[in-house]
Write a structure and sequence with these properties.
The protein has 2 domains: about 30 residues; about 160 residues, Glutaredoxin (3-Layer(aba) Sandwich). It is built from 5 helices and 7 strands, in the order αβββαβαβαββα. Helix content is about 35%, strand content about 15%. The protein is globular and about 70 Å long.
């Protein structure tokens, strides 16, 4: 009798693990997914970019703004981009005006600001919403998955680390500097995989 109970418990555990794995690898039927590969976004020139095109690269996705107390983080982002880009690292920056109207500019104005003030060379995308009912599908996923804590982005310059296969692996608050040991070591670890 004890062996049957153990066997049934083991089978239930295996089924639960399989079900959980399926839940976190697809988005059918409203189930959570941990992977950004099925998402398409617009770049600053209104060109569609499927995020699966970045497979093989480690990504840091950041919501950015030009008139924020955190705006100087552009310098740190550019620093880690230059350091790790040759190893297969990309930064995807998404301007956002959701927090205090701190990104009021057009795409052209944002690009000019970033180039002039911080010599940004990483990829800037079309301005998006990261809050509310019209939140972008990318941020809907980044803020509701089984890997990072669930909940809305709190402010500009929140960061999400994505592995080479498009899987979300870490989330860093807006006060965590891009050049911090926490972020740098996480990027290095993903680049080794």
């Amino acid at each position: 009798m004890t062996k049957k109970i153990i066997l049934v418990a083991a089978l239930l555990l295996i089924n639960q693990i399989i079900a959980q794995d399926k839940t976190t690898t697809n988005n059918e039927g409203g189930k959570l997914t941990d992977n950004i590969n099925n998402i398409t976004v617009l770049d600053m020139n209104d060109k569609e970019v499927n995020l699966s095109s970045y497979n093989g690269k480690v990504l840091l996705i950041v919501n950015v703004a030009s008139e924020c107390g955190n705006t100087p983080q552009y310098a740190g982002l550019e620093e880690i981009y230059k350091k790790f880009q040759p190893e297969g690292f990309e930064i995807l920056a998404f301007p956002c005006n959701d927090f205090g109207g701190q990104e009021p500019g057009t795409n052209e104005e944002i690009q000019t600001f970033c180039k002039t003030n911080y010599d940004v060379t990483f990829k800037l995308f079309d301005k998006i919403k990261v809050l509310g009912s019209d939140k972008s599908p990318l941020y809907a996923l980044l803020t509701n998955n089984s890997v990072t804590y669930k909940g809305d982005v709190k402010w500009n310059f929140e960061k999400f680390l994505i592995d080479k296969n498009g899987k979300i692996v870490a989330r860093f608050g807006n006060k965590v500097q891009p050049t911090s040991e926490e972020i740098v070591s996480s990027i290095e670890e993903q680049l080794k995989n």
